[in-house]
Design goal:
Blueprint (H helix, E strand, L loop, with lengths): L2 E12 L2 E12 L3 E6 L5 H8 L7 E6 L2 E2 L4 H6 L1 E4 L11 H11 L4 H14 L15 H13 L5 E5 L7 H13 L5 E5 L3 H7 L2 E6 L2 E6 L1 H6 L4 E8 L5 H8 L5 E5 L2 E7 L4 H5 L6 E7 L3 H9 L7
Parallel strand pairs: 3-8, 3-9, 6-7, 7-8
Antiparallel strand pairs: 1-2, 1-4, 4-5, 9-10, 11-13, 11-14, 12-13
Helix pairs in contact: 3-4
Length: 308
């Protein structure tokens, strides 16, 4: 399949700090490629590089065959970009903001009105069109930002935390649209929501400290953990000596603790009973499972994850 986005050895420095450190990335046409990482890992900088809003210090890239450094104006016409910030012309109504966006992209008036009508109907926004940005909720502003990003039918769609802090209804509207219209766009999605990434992403890159530390399909990433199992334990009480017990056990590869919940990684041939026996009848609940994306992410970057 054709590759719409190609980045090679991208470095972006701010002073002595490398926000992106030798990042190489390829995104196939019509695919949703998710980028996950902790705050400050370089995710938004990566998106801004693709959008030509941020010039790399080193490296090269091509967007639909256009050189990232030499063809910025042509590239921008092909991109729909949704940042984390809702930035509207506050003196215009939401409808006027959408009309302005359409005019900037040269959409014919009749076609523009038809597109706006279709999008605001789908995203349940008809009654908000004549309000000003400061008069509507955060969720409404985010939906309008999403509509503005796709209004001119871009071939590249760049979404920076599009559903963060939104209610379930708003999230479902956006996710359903992305799934149904996937072939229309090549999408790069930044999301802190691991469940969302598992639902809609074709490929996933894990970014840590400006570097891609893992990349692949969900299946491929899970296969890197196929020799591991996770034992989830809830204890009636915890003791400081538990850490010494876990550190000393040959059956425990690694573990994490949150309150009275212990998440213990073992090799595949270790029976869960070998782990529960370590805690002398303090087990309230125990289960064993295969590692998921959240577990892979935590292991790669040593961070907690967001679930719905």
């Amino acid at each position: 399949m054709a590759v719409s986005i190609t980045l090679r050895n991208i470095i972006k420095k701010y002073g002595d700090k490398a926000a992106l450190n030798n990042v190489t990335l390829g995104v196939e046409k019509g695919h949703i490629h998710a980028v996950i990482g902790t705050t400050g890992s370089g995710k938004s900088t990566l998106l801004r590089v693709i959008a030509t809003l941020c010039v790399p210090s080193l490296g090269s890239g091509y967007i639909n065959g256009l050189n990232l450094g030499a063809r910025q104006n042509q590239i921008r016409q092909q991109i729909g970009y949704m940042s984390q910030d809702c930035r509207f012309e506050e003196s215009l109504t939401l409808m006027e903001n959408l009309i302005l966006q359409g005019k900037l992209h040269g959409i014919a008036p009749v076609d523009l009105l038809n597109r706006i009508s279709g999008f605001v109907t789908r995203f349940e926004m008809i009654d908000k069109l004549h309000a000003y940005p400061h008069e509507v909720s955060y969720g409404t502003r985010r939906k309008m930002e999403f509509i503005r990003a796709v209004l001119h039918n871009p071939s590249i769609l760049l979404l920076d935390e599009p559903t963060a802090s939104l209610d379930l209804g708003c999230k479902e509207l956006m996710e359903t649209f992305l799934r149904e219209q996937k072939s229309r766009f090549t999408t790069v999605l930044i999301s802190s929501n691991i469940d969302q990434v598992e639902r809609i992403a074709d490929r996933i890159s894990i970014l840590d400290d400006g570097r891609v530390v893992a990349e692949g399909t969900l299946k491929e990433l899970k296969e890197t953990e196929q020799e591991n199992r996770i034992v989830d334990l809830t204890l009636s009480e915890t003791h400081e000596r538990d850490f010494n017990i876990l550190d000393a056990s040959p059956d425990v590869s690694s573990y994490s603790v949150q309150g009275n919940h212990y998440e213990i990684i073992t090799e595949t041939d270790v029976k869960p009973e070998a782990i529960t026996a370590l805690f002398n009848g303090r087990i309230v609940q125990a289960s064993q499972r295969l590692p998921g994306l959240a577990d892979i992410f935590k292991r790669m970057v040593k961070a907690e994850v967001i679930h719905e």
